[in-house]
Amino acid sequence: MDMRIALLCGAAVSCLGLPAFAADTDVTIVLNEELETLEPCMASQSNIGRVLLQNISETMTELDPANGELMPRLATSWEETDDATWRFHLREGVAFSDGSAFDAEDVKHSIERTLSDQLTCEIGAKYFGGMTITPTVVDAHTIDISSDPAQPILPLLMSTLTIVPAEAPMEFTRDPVGTGPYELTEYNVGQDIILARRDGYWGDAPAVTKATYVFRSDDAVRAAMVQTGEADIAPLISQTDATNKATDFAYPNSETTYLRIDSNIPPLDDIRVRQALNMAVDREAFLGTLIPEDAQIATHMTVPSTLGADEDLAVPAYDPEGAKKLLEEAKADGVPVDTEILLLGRLGNFPNVTEVMEALQAMFADAGFNVKLQMVEVAEWIKYYSKPFAAGETPALVQAMHDNNRGDPVFSMYFKYACEGLQSGICDEELDADIAAATGTPGDGRAEAWRKAFARAHDLSADVFLFHMVGFSRVSERLDFTPTIATNSELQLSQIGFK
Amino acid sequence: MQRFLAKRAVSSAVSLILLVIAVFFLSRLTGDPTDLYLPVDASAEARENFRVLHGLDQPLIWQFLDYLRDLVRLDFGDSIRRARPALEVVTEAFAWTLQLALITMAIVSGAAITLGALAAFNLGGIFDRIATFFSLIGASAPDFWVAIVAITVFSVGLGWLPTSGTGTVWHWILPVSVLFIRPFGLILQVVRGSMITALGSPYVKTARAKGAGPRAVIFVHALRNAMLPVLTVIGDQAAALLNGAVVVETIFGFPGVGKLMIDSILQRDFSVVLAAIMVTAFAIFVMNILIDLAYAALDPRIRY
Question: Do the Cβ atoms of A172 and B83 come within 8 Å?
């Protein structure tokens, strides 16, 4: 009888589906949205990157977020053979998770696939636009990669390109195969994705044996899941939920918020007006109120760890009276400073964005500007942000947040400041020349060349810089893991330890 | 009956076609998905490639005719964001929504009908007052607030239930409970009102005079006649759940069709939006037929 009761209890428990036994070295990671695809060439999207990048799919080189240096990954070394060509020496003894050996043909196919117009790969569109890349296999473990125009930072660009086997088809996959320390074992659409540590990885075996990724849109729920032990890492929680010093981390998330000034349209074409805009903003007042106190006041389009960032550059001090004087001077010279300026914000761009924009409008009004605030959703906002600007002849300040976590300003400066740049609100021959020179400068001189371009953009008051932003993560106390600037785009399981 | 079903099918098909036309053109008015899909720094060439690849470079009328041609073959097109058939994406999500709606409505209907009938039978009594009080609170409580409070109390505070997800039976308790509250309040009020009328009718008085007990009076004589307006409200509430319980799906991480539809609208993933609308419209059509059949079963005067 007792046995029957025990069996019945056992059956009942099974029916209720209590969670299966999980090893101490298994982790659960809760992401803020479900992955739309598991395609390696889309790994530049934050959540796809957090699952795939360096876990399943590896890159030739890898950027060290701590010091901005480039490290070997699937390439062991590289050298420039001529102005436009780099030779990469590939790691030997590497196998994909399907058992096939990794060689130069895989790299060639990965480049061609990522840049193919048969697919719309975000990595191709984001990092390789406007250039022609030609891979040439030298031998099984050596490949030459040429670019037109020449790319002094080609090894850095290769830190973005995920490597797939030469057999990977020219269509998006849901079953990624890579050389990384983990392989995909389950993909339960809408519920979870499970990666397991694989044998035969070329590097050291990581401590995490299995990772389960689940998806919850609500910030409070993600935070609660780590608190209750249902999850171990929530890479993104809201500032209001980040209240536990033992588990919650603020980290620079490589995003910079700013107002793009349409400098070609009166009255914004007058530098005094642009300087007045900068003096009208009390940036300190935002920190610890509407903006997290760990955020930094921005002085560049890119985060301070970027090559060429100049710590001596500063934004003007808050001085509304000084701003008024500059406006009066400009008005006396016939500049139409009373013209209504459109202040355009993007809804949901970051927490409290609407309140920040309302405060900015009030600060500009206090300094004597005639500013009209409009908040729009992303699809409408893009029309104002990218050329041809939807604002037309209306002077506009467009709020934006720019992400550059690749360590080099080349991913930012042309788009944001060159005359032909897609989101550039300024056109200045000297700045164009500085950007072109820095883009083509290799080696040690590159930092100085970018410093010059940053200084020119600063002198022109091309933007109203606001903040280098921070993100918040919650990490279980049982883990030895500290989020970094890289957590915004990847989450390497091999970097997670256990206390 | 067959003629009735055929007439309903034809009228629903006409509605569906008009819906497809309206949604197709209205959704295109909201903008080009290229700008949302590609990074803001993508070149003009990459944007043009994307438009060509997905047929967005064609005149709108050609896009519509292509869509109709495929639709006839039950091909809803591919999801731009997910790079797989839109119908597959939608049916996966709809299966979750359907389970959630069926479980919730079964519990809600059983509880609201029983308690509503008992409240009407004990009109003005303590049970009636308590049931009315809580049903009114339930009908007016906002879902998102109830959901967050439930997680805070039962998951974080007491540790009795998981916060969210779908893995086990325990995971369903909080979302079903939150979804339960509002339709329960509404249906209970309708059952109570309808039963008060039925209990005052001559046939119930006759049954009582013949010595029928309370159980027979409520469940045999009065309830069946009081059910017609209740069925209508149950149908409305079930239709709302089939369209997706967006708040509950979002907070509890349920991969249902409501959240999918909202996300797809925001992402301009037109194929998924249209497929989701068609699938939910079809489900609601089937449900309305079932309700019509239930009317006929309850009231012998109704014949199709």
Answer: yes
Cβ distance B35 to A379 less than 8 Å, yes or no, reads yes
Model pLDDT for residues A243-264, shown as the tens digit of each residue: 899 999 999 988 999 999 999 9
Interface contact flag, B165 A415, Cβ < 8 Å: no
CA-nearest of B254, B110, B229 to B178 is B254
Q: In Å, how far is A419's CA from the nearest CA of chain B?
A: 15
* Residue found under tokens 């609308």: B277
- The answer on pLDDT for B17 being more than 90 is no
The radius of gyration of chain A from alpha carbons, rounded to an integer in Å, stands at 25
Q: Is A394 exposed, middle or buried (0-12, 13-18, 19+ CB in 10 A)?
A: middle
Q: How many Cβ atoms from other residues are within 10 Å of residue B27's Cβ?
A: 18
Q: How confident is the model at residue A108 (pLDDT cuts 50, 70, 90)?
A: very high
Contact assignment for A415 to B41 by CB distance below 8 Å: yes
Distance of CA A330 to the CA centre of its chain: 39
Cβ-contact B178, A26 below 8 angstroms: no
User: What is the 3-state secondary structure of A304-368?
Assistant: CCCCCCCCCCCCCCCCHHHHHHHHHHHHHCCCCCCCCEEEEEECCCCCCHHHHHHHHHHHHHHCC
User: pLDDT by residue (tens digit) across A437-450?
Assistant: 999 898 889 999 99
Does residue A408 sit in helix, strand or coil?
coil
Catalogue all structural domains in chain B, each as residue range(s) with its CATH number.
2-72 (no CATH), 86-298 (1.10.3720.10)
Query: Cβ of B81 and A189 within 8 Å?
Result: no
- Give the pTM: 0.84
B265: helix, strand or coil: helix
CA distance between the termini of chain B: 5
What's the CA gap between A197 and A200, in Å, rounded? 10
**Mean model confidence pLDDT for chain A:** 91
Does A378 or B110 have the greater pLDDT score? B110
Q: Please, which pLDDT band fits residue A189 given cuts at 50, 70 and 90?
A: confident
According to the model, what pLDDT value does residue A11 have?
45
Q: What's the CA gap between A119 and B177, in Å, rounded? A: 44
CB-based burial of residue B105 (10 Å sphere; 0-12 exposed, 13-18 middle, 19+ buried)?
A: buried
CB-nearest to B46 from A129, A174, A225 is A129
- Number of A–B residue contacts, CB under 8 Å: 127
pLDDT in tens, A65-98: 777 789 999 999 999 999 899 999 999 999 999 9
* Per-residue model confidence as pLDDT tens digits over A447-460: 999 999 999 999 99
- Per-residue confidence (pLDDT) for residue A18, from 0 to 100: 46
**What is the β-pairing status of strands A479-480 and A497-498?**
antiparallel
At residue A8, does pLDDT exceed 70? no
How high is the ipTM of this complex?
A: 0.79
Q: How long, in residues, is chain A? A: 499
pLDDT computed for residue A14 by the predictor: 44
Q: What is the DSSP string of A165-226?
A: -TT--SS--SS---SSSEEEEEEETTTEEEEEE-TT-SSPPPS--EEEEEE---HHHHHHHH
Strand order in the sheet with A85-90: A75-82, A85-90, A142-148, A132-139
User: Which of A15, A32, A36, A132 to mutate to probe the B interface, most B CBs <10 Å?
Assistant: A36
DSSP, res A163: P
